[in-house]
């Protein structure tokens, strides 16, 4: 009987440790950044691990009121590419943060905890 109780207490301790590590990892995601560009570098977008656009750089030559649609397309392309490229960094960060607390389960996506 006491063996099962000790196992349960150990599991509860691991869950608290996991919860603490996940909170810390989430807080640190703002420091992970990814920059992507479109239009051959004319538009650059930087996002962070919290999936927020934190910087946008547009080459002066693109600022043409007569070609607003092209500029908008390049901005969207750069931002989407940056968001796509940050995903592996987020997963790696979360795996490192929970190393030793959770078993290595293939297919377990810790990014789901971030939503």
TrEMBL record:
<keyword id="KW-0238">DNA-binding</keyword>
<protein>
    <recommendedName>
        <fullName>Nucleoid-associated protein FHS68_005112</fullName>
    </recommendedName>
</protein>
<keyword id="KW-0175">Coiled coil</keyword>
<keyword id="KW-0963">Cytoplasm</keyword>
<comment type="similarity">
    <text>Belongs to the YbaB/EbfC family.</text>
</comment>
<feature type="coiled-coil region">
    <location>
        <begin position="8"/>
        <end position="35"/>
    </location>
</feature>
<dbReference type="InterPro" id="IPR004401">
    <property type="entry name" value="YbaB/EbfC"/>
</dbReference>
<dbReference type="InterPro" id="IPR036894">
    <property type="entry name" value="YbaB-like_sf"/>
</dbReference>
<dbReference type="Pfam" id="PF02575">
    <property type="entry name" value="YbaB_DNA_bd"/>
</dbReference>
<comment type="subunit">
    <text>Homodimer.</text>
</comment>
<comment type="function">
    <text>Binds to DNA and alters its conformation. May be involved in regulation of gene expression, nucleoid organization and DNA protection.</text>
</comment>
